[in-house]
Amino acid sequence: MISNHVVHHLSGGEVGVFRDQVERLTRRYAIMNDIARSALGYLLFAGFARLVMRDSFSVPDGLISIRRSFTRAELQAALGPRWCVRRTVLFRLVATFEP
Fold it and tell me: CB 3.0–4.6 Å: which of 6, 35, 41, 60 could bond 69 by disulfide?
């Protein structure tokens, strides 16, 4: 099971419901890829996106997504000890689960 950029759209309680559903459906391996919240990531995206995508809805939407995203510790707490959450390159989080 793979989810990409879903978790930052969920509240803390909704993450728990989503996690439970993923754990029930997963037979071998689950991966959740998402944005890691950070001040530096926010500032870099804000500057870069405004230069490249001046009038696009992607700029405000992206900034909202970064603000709503989780830190590694927050996502680990929301998913629980059966999940492994790690930071990867470019302000990303990857959470993995093996039943």
Answer: 35
Give residue limits of the domains in the chain. Answer: 2-97
How far CA 68 is from CA of 2, 5, 45, in Å, comes to 20, 11, 14
pTM over 0.85: yes
Closest CA to 70 of 2, 3, 5, 24: 5
With 0-12 / 13-18 / 19 or more C-beta atoms within 10 angstroms meaning exposed / middle / buried, residue 49 is middle
2-97, CATH topology level: Rossmann fold (3.40.50)
The strand order across the sheet containing 2-4 reads: 2-4, 30-35, 92-97, 83-88
More confident residue, 40 or 57: 40
Residue in the structure block whose two tokens are 């390159």:
89
